[in-house]
Amino acid sequence: MKFDRAAGQNPIDQLHVVGHPLDRIDGRFKTTGTAPYAYERHDVVPHQAYGYIIGSAVAKGRVTRMDVARAKAAPGVLAIVTTLDMPALKNGPRNTAKLFGGPEISHYHQATAIVVAETFEQARAAAVQIETDYGHDESQFDLKQAQHGARSVPAADGSRADRVGDFEKAFSASATRLDETYTTPDQTHAMMEPHATLAAWEGEKLTLWTSNQMIAWNRRDIATTLGLSEDNVRVDSPYIGGGFGGKLFLRSDAVLAALGAKAAGRPVKVALTRPFIMNNTTHRSATIQRIRIGTDRDGRIMAIAHESTSGNLPHGRPEAAIDQTKLLYAGPNRLTAMRLAVLDLPEGNAMRAPGEASGLMALEIAMDEMAERLRMDPVRFRILNDTQVDPEKPGRPFSQRHLVECLEHGAEKFGWSHRKARPASVREGEWLIGMGVAAGFRNNLLTKSAARVRLDSQGIVTVETDMTDIGTGTYTILAQTAAEMMGVSIDQVRVILGDSDFPVSAGSGGQWGANNSAAGVYAACVKLRESVAEKMGLPPAEAQFSGGNIHAGNSIFPLGQAAHEGELVAEDAIEYADVDKRYQQSTFASHFVEVGVNGFTGEVRIRRMLAVCSAGRILNPKTARNQVIGAMTMGAGAALMEELAVDTGRGFFVNHDLAGYEVPVHADIPHQEAIFLDEVDPLSSPMKAKGVGELGLCGVAAAIANAVYNATAVRIRDYPVTLDKHL
Ligand code: MOS
C-alpha cells in the first residue's frame, strides 16, 4: 500500500484500542524469566556446545603466529577456529570493522579465535591456552591529537561545509557573539543482554537464534560474510534485552558461532563477555564541537555555525553531531561541517539518537550561554528563535512542529518561573540548587515495512513480521493496531516477531520502528478486511469491524465465520514511494531539570526531571512513557557519568565493564515526568504517529549541565560533568 497523505480519517482514528495505556504483552514473560533470549534457546536444537571468543591483544598490526596445540588438547574441546585459518571474510554493506579472518588487525579485541567445547568453562579454560604472536604497526588513538590531521567530510554539495548566506560576515557583524568548544566522550551502549547467538547448520542451511535489532540486515550480512545464499539463512530474534544501536549490525558472536558450529559439527552458542563487547563491537564516538552563534540586539540569531570532529577507523563514518543544528533554530546565515580523524580504536557507530544526542549536548549548552550573554531567559531565547520552516530550505515547512508548545507547557509544569537567573544564588544547607532547560530534536524517518496477518475460524488475528521488540513495546503496539483495524479485543490478537521467515519490516532503529512497523500492520489489515468482506459478500467500502464482528447494513457476522473454510491470510507493506520532500519530518521536546550540587564535595544529585514531547499520535502512552523515562535516565548517564576511558598508549577502552563504566541506578533518578502533547501528524503515516524512543534522550544531558551551571556558576563544557571539573 502506498501511503496516501491526503486520505484523512481511517479506522485507527477510532482509538478503541490504539492510544490506550495497555500493559506490555511481553512484560510478564520478561519479568518471570520465561521469555527465551538467544543464549537460552535450550529447546530449539539438541546437542548444543559452547563457544568462547578471544580477541587481539594489540590494536593495530597482524597476527604472526597462533599456537593452538595445548588448547586443542584441553578437556572437552571440540573445535578451534582461528583467524589464520581463512582469508579475511567479506563484510556486508553495514559492517565497517573486519569481523574475522586473515592476519590483519585493525582494532583491539578484534576476534582472533573461537574455542568450542562441551561446557562454557571448558571453552574459556582452553581459550586462554592459545598462544598468539603479533606484529605492531604505528597507530593513533588520541582524538585531541588526531583532530589536527582530520579530513573534511564532504557536505551535501561536495564542499567542506554546508552554507546558507554568509556566516563569517554575519557573525562578525553580530551584536552578541559566542564561540565555544564542547567535548563529548566515547560511550558504550551497555545494554543488559550481551550480544549472543546460537548457530546451527543443517547441510548448507544456517539458523541463527540471536539478539539483533534489524533482522533483514543481519540475514543479508551474514550471508555475504559467510558466502551463503540468503535463502539458506534464517535469523530468529523474538526477545532482545536492549540494543540501543549496538545490535543494529552483524557482530562477531553470530559469525563465530556459525564458524564454530561448522567446525564442531554441533550447534554452538556464544555470548560475548562484557569486556569483549566494549572493545570488539561498536561504541558512540567522542566529539569535539565548536559552536559559534551571533545575534542581533534583540536576541535573534543572525549567524550560527556548528563544526564537529570525531574519530573512526579509516572507512568509518563521523558522528553526525551537526544534524540538529541544520533544523532546530532560525537564522539567515549558517554553516555546518564535520571532520573525521582516523583512529585505530574499535569501530564508532550508531548509539541511540546517533548525531543528535551528541550534537545537542553541545548546542544546548551554547544556547544557554548565549541566553545568559543576552540577559534573556533561556526558554524565551529558544522561543524567539523558533522556525516553522527548514532554515536551510526556506519554504519547506515541518509536517508538525510544536517546540514552542513543549517549552511553554514544560516551563509552566516545572515551575520555571521560580528559577533564579543569577547562577549560584539558591542554597539549601550544603546544597546549591539549580534549574536547567534544553530543547530536544530528532528526525522522524519513514521507511517501508511489511507484515502478514492471519484470521482463523475462532476470530483470532495473528500478526507475523520480522520486526523486533528491543524492550520498546513493539509486541503491544502492533497488537493494538491489529485489534483496532479488525475490530477485536487485544486478547484476540497474537503477535509473532523477529523471524526472517516473516515479511521484512522497518526493524528497530533510528526511532522509526513504532510508526513504520505499525503502519505495515495497518496495510496488511486493510487487505485482510477486504478479504473478509468479500468472503461474507459485503461491500468492502461499507463494511465495519467492531466487537469481533463484521457488519454492513442489516448484516452482521462474527469475524471468524469468514475463515470457516480455511484461514484467511493477507500480506502487505506500507510504502512511502512518494516521500514528500516538501515537508520536514521531525520530533521535538523540551527537557527541564533541577539539580542539587554539594557545595563541599561537588557531587551532583538530580532532583527532578520533566520532558514534554511533540511526536504525533502516541500509540500507547505507557510504552511511550517507558521509552522516554528510560531515555531521560540514559541522558543522566551521559551528563554525569558515562565515559569510556581511552588508553591512548595501547588503544583500548580501559573501563570495559559495568563496574568501571558507570550508568545511572535508581538512586540517581528520584523523580521523572514525561508529557506528550495531544497531537496527530497525518503526514507521517496512516498511524499519524512518530518516534519517541530516541527523542527522549536528545537534549537531556545539556539540560542537566545547564542546571549544574545555574546551581554553581561553573560552566563545564566537557562531558561528563564530574565533580572534579567544578571544584
Ligand atoms: Mo538506534 S542507534 O538506530 O538503534
- The CATH class of the largest domain is identified as Alpha Beta
Q: Name the helicity range.
A: 10-25%
Low-confidence stretches: none
The strand count comes to 30
What is the strand content? 25-35%
Mean pLDDT: 97
What do we call the CATH homologous superfamily of the largest domain? Aldehyde oxidase/xanthine dehydrogenase, molybdopterin binding domain
Total of helices = 15
What does this structure look like?
The chain folds into 3 domains: 11-35 and 447-574, Aldehyde Oxidoreductase, domain 4 (2-Layer Sandwich), CATH 3.30.365; 38-138 and 195-276, Aldehyde Oxidoreductase, domain 4 (2-Layer Sandwich); 375-444 and 580-727, Aldehyde Oxidoreductase, domain 4. The protein has a 7-stranded mixed sheet. The protein is α+β, with helices and mostly antiparallel strands and 727 residues long. The protein is 23% helix and 25% strand. It starts with 26 loop residues before the first helix and ends in a 15-residue tail after the last helix. It is built from 15 helices and 30 strands. It is globular, with a radius of gyration of 27 Å. The mean pLDDT is 97. The site of dioxothiomolybdenum(VI) ion has 11 residues, from loops.
